[in-house]
Structures are given as structure tokens and as C-alpha cells.
Amino acid sequence: MTESTKSSPTDVVTALDRASEELVAGRLREVRPGDGLLGEEGADDPGTSGVRWIVDPLDGTVNFLYNLPNWAVSIAVEVDGQVVAGVVHAPALGVTYTAALGDGSARNGVPLAGSAVTDLAHALVATGFGYTVERRIAQVTVLTRVVPRVRDIRRMGAASLDLGAAAAGLVDAYYERGLHPWDHAAGALVATEAGLRVGGLHDRPISNDLAIAAPPALFDELHDLLAADPPADRD
């Protein structure tokens, strides 16, 4: 497998990332020629229809390289700027998360409901690390404050699957800094439709600064714990 790096030596891209995006983009252009497309590996076409597809062709590339199963293809579609449907497909896990705005979310066709935990001390929290040294140092610093306040931390290496895991109640909550739209577009809808509160800093939508998905009873406490730190240098 041919591999190269993007923002840092730990930010890996493979020939499969590019081939997967080309495959998805080509198929979409065949069936939806007027739609826009935003992809991790460079696709950025605004389109003319008001519909845009947001694609992460291989979320969890490092996991894939090491033959770990936590990797996925993530595809969302937005209409006039609002995500209305999403799918996160993890072939090695045999798992597919789906969601449609206002119509719920599912894991392999089974409807999802996120965790009902109300005490942060009892919450299993997923997170992820960025690629730059500066961001990783900042994230470890935050962890030293988060770890004593929660049940435990999990780091699985693919944001779309972390959001899916939160939606399925496999973890109670999730947070991460440094995400791009293709990292969270589909997974955030899956989590929202499973009843979780999903957002960023100070009642704003998810952004590069922060993403949180948590039960409504936990969201503010987790947010305030994380908001005490200024965002680290963006990836």
C-alpha cells in the first residue's frame, strides 16, 4: 500500500483514500451531476443544485494501515447547508450507521438511542487526537483534567465511528478538537438523531475548535470542562 503524509508525519494518506474518494465522486457525478462535493482528499465543488455531498473516503487511515478494524467510509448529504442524511460504513466491523433528519438513526437497521447517563463521573468518554505535535500536547493537557472527572476514556481513532458509538450507547459521550466537516458530518447526524446533544463551543455548531456529543444531562458539564482551554493550533 503506497502511503504519504499531509499535515505532519502522523497524518497519513494512502492510495486507497484517494481511490475511494474518486470512486464515490465518480458515481455521484453520474447520478447527481449538479450536486456539490466536499471530500477529504481534495474534492471541492460547490455544484449548482443546492445539494452537497460531504465525503471522508477512509476515516481511520492509520487503523487501516495497521489492520485494525476501526475505519470507515463516511458520506453525508446536505441541502442548503443543512445535513439531511448520513451513512458511516465500517466493513471490517460489519457495522453501518445510518441517519435521516427527523427520522432517527440506526446501526445495521436497528434504531439507536444514545446513553441516558446523567452523572459525568459514570460516563465512558471517547476522544481523538490531532496530528500536529502542538495539538497533541494540548489534548494530553486537557486529558489530565478530564480523566479524574469521568469513568474512563476511550481513543478509537476514527471520529465518524466515535460518533456512531456514542449514538449506540457503546460510549456515553465523545469530544474532540480539530475536526473537519468530512470527519463529523454523517456521524453528528447519527448521534443527534439518537437523542444526543451535539455541538461545539458556546452553543455554536461543531467546528474545528470543538465537537461534543453527549446526553443532554451531561453536555453542559462536559462542555464547560473543555471550554476552559483555548483551542490549540488547528490541524
UniProtKB/TrEMBL annotation:
What protein name applies here?
Inositol-1-monophosphatase
Q: Does the keyword Metal-binding apply?
A: yes
- Where, by residue number, does Mg(2+) bind? E40, D56, L58, D59, D183
State the organism's lineage: Bacteria, Bacillati, Actinomycetota, Actinomycetes, Frankiales
Q: Does the keyword Kinase apply?
A: no
Similarity comment: family membership: Belongs to the inositol monophosphatase superfamily.
Molecular functions per Gene Ontology: inositol monophosphate 1-phosphatase activity; metal ion binding
Q: Which cofactor does it need?
A: Mg(2+)
Swiss-Prot/TrEMBL GO biological process terms: inositol metabolic process; signal transduction
**Which UniProt key words apply to this protein?**
Hydrolase, Magnesium, Metal-binding
Catalyses which reaction(s):
a myo-inositol phosphate + H2O = myo-inositol + phosphate
Q: Which Gene3D superfamilies match?
A: 3.40.190.80, Fructose-1,6-Bisphosphatase, subunit A, domain 1
Pfam families in the cross-refs: Inositol_P (PF00459)
Q: What is its EC number?
A: 3.1.3.25
